Sequence to fold (597 residues):
Amino acid sequence: MENTEYKNVYIFAEQRDGVIQNVAYELLGKANDLAKELGQQVVALLLGDGISNQAQDLIEMGADEVIVIDRPELKDYLTEQYTQAMYQVIMARKPRIVLYGATTIGRDLAPRLSCKLKSGLVADCTKLTIEPDKEGNLDFYSTRPAFGGNLMATIVCPTSRPQMSTVRPGVMQKMQRQAGKKGVISTFTPNFDSTRFKVRLVETKQNEEKVADISNAKILISGGRGVHDAEGFKKLQALADTMGGMVSSSRAMVDAGVMDHAYQVGQTGKTVRPNLYMACGISGAIQHLAGMEESGYIIAINKDKYAPIFSVADLGIVGDLHKIVPMLTERIKKELAQ
Amino acid sequence: MNIIVCVKQVPDTTEIKIDPVKGTLIRDGVPSIMNPDDKGGLELALRLKEQTGATVTLVSMGPPQADKMLRDGLAMGADRAILLSDRRFAGADTLATSYALAGCIKTLDYDLIIAGRQAIDGDTAQVAPQLAEHLDLPQVSYVIDAVKTDNGVRVKKETEDSVQTLEVEGKCVLTVLASAFKARYMSVEGIIDAYNREVEVWSADQIDVDENLLGLKGSPTKVHKSFPKSLKEPGEVFELSDEEAVELIVSRLKEKHII
Fold:
C-alpha cells in the first residue's frame, strides 16, 4: 500500500564547526537519483549555529530545497538537541526517505530518531535503489554489508515512514556543482525542551596531526603486512609523491602501530574509490576488499601468487614490492620528465 | 551502583569463509564469541566495579546457547546474568531487539547501562541508541573512557577527528569501543565459580512489553534478500622479472591515462 502523505527525499546535511561534510554532498548525489525515480524533490536539512549562509551551497550541490534550523542549541552535535530538532521537522514535513551519513554523528542520531518515529532504519548502506514491488508500487531498497563484509543484505521497510538509512561515506558520487542554481531556502524553528538536555560538552580536542583524508585521494599507494615497517612505507610514500597520490594502509599495519588509523582502508577503516589503488604487500582480507574494490583501476603487488587481493586486481604482479616500488618510482619520474 | 551491560553472542566473523561453489556463508565450525565491543563494555563495567563496588548485571537476548557466553562474562567478574530467550523474540530487527532489552531492563534497578558500539555480525550500531530512546535516557556513543561523578558520569568520546569530553547528569546509556578497553582474562576461580552459578533465562512473560511489538511483528525492516558479495572478474596476474613488471605497470598506467 502506497503511503502518499510522506513525500520527497531528505538528507541530513552534516556539518562540523560550520563546515558541511563531504558525505552531505554524496548524499545529495544519491538523493537526486532516488528522487528522479520517485518523481519527487530533494530536500536538505541543515542544522547548526550561524550556518544559514551555507544553504545556497547545498542548492548548488543538488538540493531543490534547504530547510535551515539555525539555533545556538545546535552549535555542537549533541544527541538530545539534534533529536528534538530533527524529530519536529520530520513530523512537520513528513519525508518519504531520510538519508544520513554513516558517521559518528549519523550513527548516533539516526537510530535515536528511528526509535522515536517507530520507523525502519538501515545502517551503513553501500547501495540505495528505488524498484517496483509486486503490486507495482515503487519501494526503497537499502543494501549493506553484514558479517564483516562477507554477505550483502538488501533491506526494505514496507510500511513505516519515513524510510531511513545511514550511508557509508565515500561510496556515493557527488554531483557537479551548478553555480548560481536557484532553489527554495526555508527556515524551521523547533521548540526545545531544555529540561531534557542532560549531556554537556566540556571540551573538544581535535586530533593533533591534521591528517589528509585518504578518501579524497585520486591515487592511493596502499601498504600491508608485506611492507614490514615504517622504512618500507617510505618507499610507498616516494611513489605516491611522484604520482601526486597518498599512502594508505591495511588494518594489519595499523594494528602493528606502523600507520595511524586515519589511513586505514577497509570495513573498519575508510571506503575509498580512487582512480588508481595500488595494493603493495596486502593479502586482501575480505574486510580490506570491502573498502577498496570500487576503485577505478587496481594494481596488486604481492609475493604470494595465491593472495586473495589478486581476485579483485585489474593487474596483478607476483613479486617483491621492496624491489619493484623503488624501480617504478624512478621509471615514472623519467616518464613524467619527458 | 548497579551497572547493566548488554552483550551479544556472535559468530567470529573473521573466521567466516564463503563456499566458492555455492557462494554461501560457511558457518559450520565458526566459533561463537562474546561480541568484542560488548566485551569492552563489560571490561569498563568491571573497572567501575573495582572503583565503586558496583554490581554488574549482564543482559543478553539470544538462543539458549548464549548461556556459554554469559558464563564467560560471569567468569570475568560479572555478578548476575540474564538471558532473554523466547521464540517470540525471533526475527527481531534492531528496533524490536532494543524494545525487548528495554522491557527487561525496566524491571531492574540500575544506575548505568553500557553496551558495545556495534556487533560484528550485524554491524548496525543501532540497538543501544534505540534502547536509550525506549528507556527515555540520554546516550553517549563511541566512548573510550568513563569515570563516575557525584551525579552521573564523565566520559570521553572518540569521533573521526577529535576526542570530546562530555558530562552526563543522571542515568544514561554508553556505547563503548573494544579498542579502548582491553578485556581481562577469566580467572580460574572465576571459571569454576561461573559454572556453579545460575544464568537466569527469562521469557517474554517476565518482561515489561507489549507482545505485538516483539520479534518479526515489531520489526519495521525486513530482509528482502541476502547474497554473497559478488566478486568482480579477476584481472590478469603476471610473474615477470622486476624490470618487465615495472614496464608493464607503466604501460597500463599510460593506457588508463593515470600518468
